[in-house]
Queue: 2 jobs
Job 1
Amino acid sequence: MASSCSSLSSFNWTHQNSLHRHRRSSVTPRNDRHVIISSVKTADGNGNVTSPTNDNIRDEEARRNRSTSSAVSPFSARYVPFNAPAESTESYSLDEIVYRSKSGGLLDVEHDLEALKHYDGAYWRKLFDSRVGKTKWPYGSGVWSKKEWVLPQIHDDDIVSTFEGNSNLFWAERFGKKFLQMNDLWVKHCGISHTGSFKDLGMTVLVSQVNRLRKMNKPVVGVGCASTGDTSAALSAYCASAGIPSIVILPANKISMAQLVQPIANGAFVLSIDTDFDGCMKLIKEITSELPIYLANSLNSLRLEGQKTAAIEILQQFNWEVPDWVIVPGGNLGNIYAFYKGFKMCKELGLVDRIPRLVCAQAANANPLYLHYKAGWKDFKPVKASSTFASAIQIGDPVSIDRAVYALRNCDGIVEEATEEELMDAMAQADSTGMFVCPHTGVALTALFKLRNQGVIAPTDRTVVVSTAHGLKFSQSKIDYHSKAIPDMACRFSNPPVEVNADFGAVMDVLKGYLGNKALN
Ligand SMILES: Cc1ncc(COP(=O)(O)O)c(C=O)c1O
Ligand SMILES: N[C@@H](CCOP(=O)(O)O)C(=O)O
């Protein structure tokens, strides 16, 4: 049986004595014994315990787990109906295949917070910090470095990970100063990742659990999703790495070529369907209720357990100081809730004393949440999403609408929208200061521009913009913008190449003209 005792026991043992004093209760987790046992091995310069054999990092951890196989995790998690009334007793094991509550509502993964509270905030901060930047399986992953808060009961050997997470929290110094008069602006580059988007954070959790279910002989022949590009890329990569079949349903001609080729290259079974994302989502829900195909979209609350670690990571990267604002582009609306949940857990477990205000940013062409917010959260109505350069969030009927509303209402959150011109300009402005962001990040940056102009976000507010995908996946939109090939768009920040004859004089003339317009510094 999986043991997160071993996960606690096997972290840098030299920290254990100093961490011990942080434990709140007199309960002694059974793993402490194993800490002592493992400590007889030699420790490398980083305090990692090393094996005398030539095991790879997965084998090394499996061997360690075998030696602690009698240990049972003191932590646990289960599915419960999302936002259930206190008197609800409905719950499911994470080893069940279930996506909806009895009433048809969303589910949530509920952790045993009382067990986690046996350790105080300082303990968790130090434990998580001790795992960053190491190769130790599976903690080298930014997701699995928080394993006790994610999937505490999974066996380390069942985990399918690319050491995702630990993404760059980039100080957007020049962008902040030049365009916003801000000096504490940060971009969390979740898109600089294994498959180029934040979806890796959730997919490692979901595919790991599928790996476990298949080893338990549960009826899972493959894993499937509907996608606007990034979920399918992540699903196919993680499944390919574990040897699990993946099936992806894509809206024909509505995702970028770079995104389309990802599942193809990773060996997924790709269905290109003449509908939009909402149509694909409807199909995959029907398919997964008929066939032994496990649903990988964020309707499945397992995904959000991985995605929430990006919020924890932001706090960690600020040395556990809480930013004032976090701005997240929203489509199917799982991620905004995942951020809320990550921040909320850190507050509940004493790692920080407050949570940031969240802003969810939508494309004006696909803005059901924005309209709902403007209507005072009354009577949600899905919309027919129109085409947008932010194609991964072209979603009119988001599955996680209830989760998003809950998150935003509980953090005094805001919803903003961006027109096509605004999002493309914002993306180009960010790129002109050295970034290379995706159009969805352009949507989030537009929200920031608007809230700064309205005086809602102050120049000194510490603000994080979540960048959700790698800009290289969306090169064609940048090519269109910089060649001013977009109808009815001024493309104010375009920077097209200058065509010059292969002639020294002609080149010099052009260069002198260019340099003449520049100040010496
Ligand atoms: C690049 C990118 N940004 C933002 C989002 C929005 O995330 P969510 O669907 O969780 O709201 C998605 C997917 O929907 C995406 O692929
Ligand atoms: N942008 C997503 C849309 C589906 O979102 P999910 O989080 O519910 O899987 C994608 O890339 O497919």
Job 2
Amino acid sequence: MAELLTAAQMRAIEQAAIASGEVTGLELMERAGRGVVEAIFEEWPELAEERGPAPAPPGYLQQEEGAWRAVVLCGPGNNGGDGFVVARLLRARGWAVEVFLYGAPDKLPPDARANYERCCEAGKVQAFAEFEPENWNWQTGEVGEVDLIVDAVFGTGLVRPVGSEIWLHEKIGVLTSGVVNARRVAIDLPSGLCADSGKPLIDTQDEIGRGKLEFELSVSFHREKVGHRISDGPAFCGKTVVKSIGLDDLPSSRAAARELASEIVRLTQPRLLDKAAESHKYTHGHALILSGGSGRTGAARLAARGALRIGAGLVTLGVPPNAQQEVACQITALMLARIDGAEGFAAVLDDTRLNALCLGPGMGIERARDLVPVALAARCATVLDADALTAFAEDPAELFAQLHEACVLTPHGGELARLFPDIAAKLNAPAMTGPAYSKVDATREAAKRAGCVVLFKGADTVIAAPDGCCSVNSAHYERSAPWLATAGSGDVLAGFITGLLARGFAPMQAAETAAWLHVECALEFGPGLIAEDLPEQLPAVFRKLGV
Ligand SMILES: NC(=O)C1=CN([C@@H]2O[C@H](COP(=O)(O)OP(=O)(O)OC[C@H]3O[C@@H](n4cnc5c(N)ncnc54)[C@H](O)[C@@H]3O)[C@@H](O)[C@H]2O)[C@@H](O)CC1
Ligand SMILES: Nc1ncnc2c1ncn2[C@@H]1O[C@H](COP(=O)(O)OP(=O)(O)O)[C@@H](O)[C@H]1O
Ligand SMILES: [K+]
């Protein structure tokens, strides 16, 4: 299962390896630099082609032709150290490389210092203040084309907001503003991005020039960091490649990782979805999904279709009398039960074969306020979405007092803010110091307070349980699925979770697997997707999974 590490976890794993004597920091840095160069050539094979030798410094960037040209921006820590390795390796291949250092050489940590010195043997390293692409005269050809920009200013050690003197988004923006056509690679993370939260730490009220901070490739080591997958991280990173630096082969770092295991955030992956051959429909559970009144039943019908397709044995829509006819005209495999007020609902719940409930989609606030307490009193696996969450905006504590561990809450950002206003305020505050409060922190805190699983939606859906277990369902990079942002897709997701709960999945596993399948369905259909299409992709997705 793919793990996402925080900066502190990565440090602990690396430090354990170094402390054991199984590897030195210098060796890890060399492997990191080599990994970056490898990743660059894998991403842009044309850059690996041989070219003429580098002209002698100074002023090699003035040359019109000849070697490939790179600018490497190094910072004051080990990220800068990785940058010096990359600069040296590129120079050894005949590249013309301009290296700039932000910070004083004698303050570099030992391994970075060693690589600074080795880098200087093959060419100069200039002070960062000299990096003034805004003053380079492109028009007169005084400065030649730059083929590659390497950002090695800050990695996982970024703790303070990036000052205006190193606003890379501005500087790199100049370099890439169409005058030159350089590929942009960030070592570990784009400098300025907080490794734990995926938020930029920038000390300014100004609009961040986001387009300019975006890289095409980020090369991380050992594991992706949480920040590669949440908030602004994916947009800034462009594409994230992970290179091994040999830590998985070392008993010391493996032991350190085992100790951290319960805290580590994971990327979602599907659980076993097969059905046993000897089963019958009741083995797969009976889900009940409550709808709203006449004219507002679409959301619940979407959820119900999702629950049925994902394999619940039976799915019943619980509708108020005024919507009975409307729903009856629309459904075939789904069943229908008349559910009016709290009393009638309680009577329906006497049927113990009903083992998963879904309340919220299109339900209406008033009906939700009446019926959610009845559902929760039944102590049945229950998904609360949409109106079932908003109904408790005025007194979230009232809801929390009734929730139990078989519940799943599925808020989007607005709904989360209604139930957890303090958590939303912390999450939405400008990030000044690292590690910044993240969507992972927010979801974990919400799950703990609610006492049940919380699935916080978005392209970076975060799912957490009260015990801290947490995963990210990332619709980014090769799983980018922007077509999922369409009305009703959240209703289908609620139905998917309900269906899996009916099938007997534990709440955390139901939420993770449903979120993962939701994105797979969107990818299976592709552009033009609307919510109705989502459940209909499940058969193809299951076939691909070998279910
Ligand atoms: N942890 C590991 O296992 C490995 C780490 N490596 C590299 O080392 C990096 C982490 O190195 P470090 O921990 O030295 O951290 P960084 O190199 O990311 O930055 C730390 C330095 O920047 C300063 N700093 C932080 N925020 C600042 C700000 N806003 N303005 C000015 N200065 C600021 C800190 O005081 C410190 O001097 C990783 O991202 C990775 O690139 C690699 O060499 C491979 C192995
Ligand atoms: N850009 C995006 N990429 C991938 N998934 C997205 C994106 N935006 C939204 N989603 C997903 O689409 C669904 C939207 O749900 P929600 O906000 O409840 O809206 P609705 O109820 O109208 O469907 C959620 O599952 C969310 O994770
Ligand atoms: K960097």
